[in-house]
Amino acid sequence: MSSQKKNKIQPSPNIQLPMFRQVCVIGLGLIGASFAQAIKDSGLSERLVAADRHVPSITEAIEHGLLDAGSANLQDVVGGSDLIIIAVPVQAVQAVFVDIKQAMDDGQLATDCIMTDVCSTKVNIIDAAKAVFGSLPIGLVPAHPIAGAENSGYHARRANLFVNHSVIICELPTTSNVAITKLRLLWEAVGANVISMDANHHDRILAHTSHLPHLLAFNLVEQLASHDDNLDMFRYAAGGFRDFTRIAASDPKMWHDIFFANQSAIVSALDEYGAYLQTMRQLIIDKDSTALMGLLGRAQAARRHFGHMLASTPYTDTSAMSASYNITPSNTVSGTIAIPGDKSISHRSIMLGSLATGVTNVTGFLEGEDALATLQAFRDMGVSIEGPDKGRLTIHGVGMNGLKPSKTPLYMGNSGTSMRLLSGILAAQSFDSVLTGDTSLNKRPMERVAAPLRAMGAVIQSTGHSGTAPLSITGRDTVGKPLKGVEYDMPVASAQVKSCLLLAGLWAEGTTTVTQPEVSRDHTERMLSAFGYPVTVDGNRISVEGGGTLTGGDIAVPADISSAAFFMVAAAISQGSELTLTQVGINPTRTGIIDILKLMQADISLSNETHVGGEPVADITIRGSNLVGIEIPEHLVPLAIDEFPVLFIAASCAQGRTVLTGAKELRVKESDRIAVMAEGLHTLGIDCTVTDDGLIIEGQGIGSENGDVNNSQPVFGGGHITSHHDHRIAMSFSVASLRASKQITIEGVETVNTSFPGFAELANQIGMSIEVDAGAE
Q1: What is the distance between the alpha carbons of residues 624 and 572, in angstroms, rounded to a whole number?
Q2: Which residues bind phosphoenolpyruvate (predicted)?
Q3: Closest alpha carbon to 399 in 434, 431, 372, 360
């Protein structure tokens, strides 16, 4: 059909065509006919034949040019086939095997002919093959494409039905590697994503994810149809009913066979579902609002979460790198604005609030992707959390020993803070756990927390030679003894490593002491104290005693100084600017950005200083100024580690050279921020040199003879910048537009939502000109 030609799949150039001499498809329903069409369109077989008892389907397929031959009798067409695809109802497969064996006995087929199926159950397929052949044929490769459509039959076929859908292959020990490899390549050639799975595991998983939903859909439609007022019920059924019950339009005979074929796993899934229904029923009867909100909230968040977890993507999809900023140069910024909540404190409020006794109310929570990953992890471990709703959360703490094992790996998205801090908490729990993230996070080093945790007695396995995620953590019940407190001298100042060990120390026997070479952020120490847990700070030595408790309370999250940094630099480098940022956290372990900008002679002042939730805050006002290049003191590096990308923009606009050393930590962030920023600066015409632990930037600022501000001249050219999936890179080069001569386009800005949702809108509010191109949907 012409419609099939429009959707022609292009096989990988690595596949040598044709792959097969003759493919025989048994059964020309939706799946069999779609597979046949995809094979035909892509030229994957010299000949294509089929057997189907429905003769009109065979006749039409030959007339359409899909088949070279076809018959209602398998023996008429199967001879010489090197691949047989069985696409009949599961209960009919054994009879097909009998016909195939007869063809082999008659010499029509080679014993190594590849045989595969497309059935929704696998154990019974293997059992049927054993019953017919005695021992499993070396060419048998059970498979199951996770694809379908509401309509069925030959006429519903689509050559692109399997594109970007999963196909499960059950690799049997009796099957030849050649057969497995060729079938995998065939499915990939028609656009499918191939995964391997044990047959028993396949049947259990599909019982829950496919068979049970279909059973429930059939049942719900039958239930409503049986009511006396069924006409009104169907007439006024909302979209949810239509969406959920769409699958009840599937072939009843097929599902009848599947339900019997996978009886044991489906009955088990039904029993589990029934128990959950009884729980929900009782919550409604008891009017248990907290528990019901927890259940509904976990379900809602999990539904959104699973797609990202399975695809190993951030919560915001960056796979296509489609979204971009197109930024027109502007000269000045002004106004008074509020910055979103602090990401570091948002993370910790969820962690400690979940482990506390009682309720914790959080305000100012940052609803960015990273913090949401932490929130979801604790929901997965049984914590009831209401929200977020406009920055508000209500966390019903489960106490120090109340976490439950997650039934799936805990997915951290792109958040290194989530993974490293949670490692410390999970290392002390009684149950096993697995931490994983998106592709970017799974490349970042995790031995920096895994190694010292092992010194405390943790059993933690990282991945690969470089010690990356996923991390597998063995529970204390298996290990048989609790963690032991240690004294750990940190080789590099890192708030994440320090916090990880202090959190593990809450459960450890004795004292856990961390000594840091330089001061790093102390949000964990401050928040532990706010939750009533004693922390001892002696210079750069921080200690906790294991065995204490946390008490819930109110946490107000101040504005994030790391997010404020972009606007501080924006005002500092642009002519006539005056910008006030309200109630920004000025924790002394985070104010490196202010100290460095002041050394560069930026005009910055603080007002309305106070404390919120144990954290100092203030309004910050920045005015345009004539910056000068400096050698950045190494003791300030840990206090501004996340702000250096935008500080590199400031240094480019300064008069003279700026030198950064002691910043190796920047090379293992979401990207190698030193290399990526240098690449972008070169694109915009800035002379800079990458060193092992820093960057040397030749500032292009021009000062006037009398010292007056002279920051009106462009410093940067224009061009295309690639963010390398790094939110801080994207936002930093946005700031550069204030001193650019031409438009700057920044590709891949979806990741900005990890830390600063609404960045572009806020930037435009103060005078910048950022046009967001969402790209292709």
Answers
A1: 4
A2: 343, 416, 444, 496, 673, 728
A3: 360
